[in-house]
Design brief:
Helix content is 22%, strand content 27%. The strands form four sheets. Strands 1, 2, 3, 4, 5, 6 and 17 form a seven-stranded mixed β-sheet that branches. A five-stranded parallel β-sheet has the order 8-15-9-10-11, with helices on one face. The chain has a three-stranded antiparallel β-sheet with strand order 12-13-14, with no helix packed on it. The protein binds NADP nicotinamide-adenine-dinucleotide phosphate.
């Protein structure tokens, strides 16, 4: 029996672990893939207060080491569901806790077009910092208009010969500070008001077809396509113990409380107005603190 099981070892989950470990609680962190969550792929973090610049990998590794030093147990298993009695069922085992913090974040949104999934690793990627190096002096395209797409464009422009940044609207969702940098780059070409209608190639990506707002199609030869169109939650497996909104995010009352006593949510997985590193770690610390306060009543 653990005091708290944390599901997810991203910034929210690991921050909860840090707070709980420092409060001497018996904690298990369950993670399906590897620690760090989405931020591990950020090439540079420049908006974390008090840290001028750090890579997502270094940030995540520092946080992971900070947590491990407290003796927190982290197991790499996939959570399948939470039973009503707060037993967490994984692909491997069942674990019981007084409290559970769901910090599962979100996963890359897919374009959901033909060949997208088949060509992952064959020209299609969701992570510029992971795969960018394969495209030295090649032609790449990025799809999206948020901070991730803008950052990816800048990152790839230092590696690839030519970078197309394709966005479905005229205005970007990402911050101007990135856009100003992009405009200074000779090898980034903006394609606005356009969507990708097909991914082409026999066994690997060879080109994409884009469609503008007048439905005019154009074929662009590229070697790599980086899809950066945001994230989606993956909370359906928890729907017996938490309420979800229409987009699948967990509805939290009072920051981190879900509808089930002793089950809390932290980070991108919940309904919130700003999904950033700062708000994820904020949630993580609140969830842990609330769990500690309420532990005797659970
Ligand atoms: P995001 O802000 O949600 O942006 C997603 C972008 O993809 C939007 O421009 C959206 O277009 C577009 N899009 C969505 N679905 C699409 C589809 N089916 N086809 C074509 N385009 C589609 O996602 P994000 O850029 O991954 O960022 C996620 C969060 O992390 C944000 O809060 C962001 O600020 C934060 N972040 C911060 C940093 C940083 O501060 N250093 C770096 C990366 C990310 P519309 O604009 O038309 O909706």
């Amino acid at each position: 029996m653990y005091d708290v099981i944390i599901i997810g070892a991203g910034p929210a989950g690991l921050t909860s672990a840090l707070y709980l470990g420092r409060a001497n609680k018996n904690v298990l962190v369950l993670e399906a893939k590897s620690y760090g969550g989405q931020i591990v792929n950020a090439s540079k973090i420049k908006n974390y207060p008090g840290v001028e610049e750090i890579s997502g990998f270094d940030f995540s590794t520092n946080l992971y080491n900070q947590v491990k030093k407290l003796g927190i147990e982290i197991k790499y298993e996939t959570v399948l569901r939470i039973k009503d009695d707060k037993t967490v069922v994984t692909n491997n085992e069942e674990y019981k806790a007084k409290a559970i913090i769901i910090a599962t974040g979100s996963e890359n949104r897919k374009l959901n077009i033909e060949k997208e999934r088949d060509f992952v690793g064959k020209g299609v990627s969701y992570c510029a910092t992971c795969d960018g190096n394969f495209y030295k002096e090649k032609i790449v395209a990025i799809n999206g208009g948020g901070n991730t797409a803008l950052e990816d464009a800048l990152y790839l422009s230092d590696i690839a010969k030519e970078v197309y940044l394709i966005h479905r609207r005229e205005e970007f969702r990402g911050e101007n500070v990135y856009l100003d940098e992009i405009k200074k780059k000779d090898n980034i070409k903006l394609i606005l008001n356009a969507t990708i209608s097909s991914i082409n190639g026999d066994n690997k990506l060879e080109s994409i077809t884009i469609k503008d707002k007048d439905e005019q199609e154009q074929l662009i030869k590229i070697d790599g396509l980086f899809i950066a169109i945001g994230q989606e939650p993956k909370n359906e497996i928890f729907s017996n113990v938490v309420d979800l909104d229409s987009r699948g995010y967990i509805i939290a009352t009072d920051d981190v409380h879900t509808k089930t006593k002793g089950i809390y949510v932290a980070g991108d997985a919940r309904v919130k107005s700003l999904r950033q590193l700062t708000t994820a770690v904020s949630d993580g610390s609140i969830a842990a603190t609330v769990a500690i306060k309420e532990m005797n009543t659970l």
